[in-house]
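Appendix C reproduces, verbatim, an entry submitted by the partner laboratory led by Prof. M.T., so that reviewers can inspect both the input and the predicted structure.
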Amino acid sequence: MKETIKKILTGRKHPDKIKTIKRLENIRRIRDTDVLFGKEPLNL
């Protein structure tokens, strides 16, 4: 997973990868809100 994120971050010029970064940020945000509401966090 970390390798994939590194590849995405190094390829920021590509719009597809930027979308993927935004998707990862959304997943992270969802995970954080789940933690706030006492649900199990996703393993990312």
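The chain is about 70% helix and 0% strand. Additional entries are available on request from the coordinating office.
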